[in-house]
């Protein structure tokens, strides 16, 4: 399970099951979890994270309903194959929200859209080295 | 901080009992602040407070309250301090009104109007006998008694122990109001760290008779963090500096007490998603300090 890095915190405002689904999705999106690879069993994850199995079950069933994983009875849960586009769509919406926030802040401080676009380009270029 | 600003000062104070020793090297409280004294049961919180109130005599060291020595100026100090102990003792057969009258005789500056209005706002019946008051009512009543001579310093020893959350919150909010609106100084001791989290500006941890850490609460909480990391992604120097390490199949973690110092070296890991920072609460800090002691 070297590809899975999960942190669950009581102090995080999100419910436990959502913290888990978010991090599994992230691992899938980043390519850390490849399609067809096997997820830890519900029991194993519950034991390692010291969280109730009910919570993990909820997380897995959400992931399954949203099409990110497939559970084969008796065999365990696997990363589904179709999900990259789906994740992209989800992220697209998140990014949209973030940009809206940035635009609102910029407006308050009189920063133009052109300046923001230039800034994004600049940041991107310097991080790409 | 300049010494003259301190309402309260402890310097190299020692008190020994058989099997227990209190050693407070330094503890100060500037005017208008709320100091939370945190420690496990039996750490010496009550002893320290009783030294202030001259209910216990220190063996050595210097203690000043309003610049006065409690062993010499106990009466003057008590006139300016409102004290609420762990347990409330009253004459059970006497009424609330009688008890108020009785207590008022100990103070030069007792404010009857204030006492009456506190009773009204706490909804305490003046004709009730004190033994008929519930635990929560007794604490409210004690607080009314402690506030009615306009104390400059409030000392509360485990004031919320055994109280329900509604009354607890009410007591804590009153303390904040007294401190922030009226400039009163407050010392509150508790092993319920949540109470301190909600009220205190400064915190001092008392463990096995020693003050092991004093800090502004906000600074403390911004420096103490639990760092979660994917195995093999964190600089080994940082890993070794962490305490209370945990390991599981999906990551490792440990507690740091100097997050602001190491923050920059974690930035890359955070953006790559292999390092995550979790806040800790005062309980976690207390446990870390107890284990390290």
Q: Order of strands side by side in the largest beta sheet of chain A?
A: 1-2
User: Could you spell the SSE succession of chain B in H and E letters?
Assistant: EEEHEHEHHHEHEHEEHEHEEHEH
Largest beta sheet: strand ordering of chain B: 5-6-7-3-8-9
N to C succession of SSEs of chain A: HHHEEHH
CATH T-level topology of the largest domain in chain B: Rossmann fold
Unreliable segments of 5+ consecutive residues of chain A: none
Q: Indicate the percent of residues in helices of chain B.
A: 25-40%
CATH class of the largest domain in chain A: Mainly Alpha
CATH superfamily grouping of the largest domain in chain B: P-loop containing nucleotide triphosphate hydrolases
Number of domains of chain B: 2
- Summed up, the helix count of chain A is 5
Strands of chain A, total number:
2
Structure description:
The complex is a heterodimer of chains A (about 130) and B (about 290). Chain A has helices spanning about 15-30, 40-50, 55-65, 85-110, 115-129, and strands spanning about 70, 75-80. In chain A, helix 1 crosses helix 3 (about 55-65) and helix 2 packs across helix 3. The mean pLDDT of chain A is about 90. In chain A, strands 1-2 form a two-stranded antiparallel sheet. In chain A, about 60% of the residues lie in helices and about 5% in strands. With about 130 residues, chain A is mainly α. In chain B, strand 8 (about 200-205) and strand 9 (about 210-215) form a beta hairpin. Chain B is α/β, with parallel strands linked by helices. Chain B is elongated, with a radius of gyration of 22 Å. The model of chain B has no long low-confidence stretch (mean pLDDT about 90). In chain B, the strands form three sheets. In chain B, strands 5-6-7-3-8-9 form a six-stranded mixed sheet, with helices on both faces. The interface between A and B is medium-sized, with 17 and 14 residues.
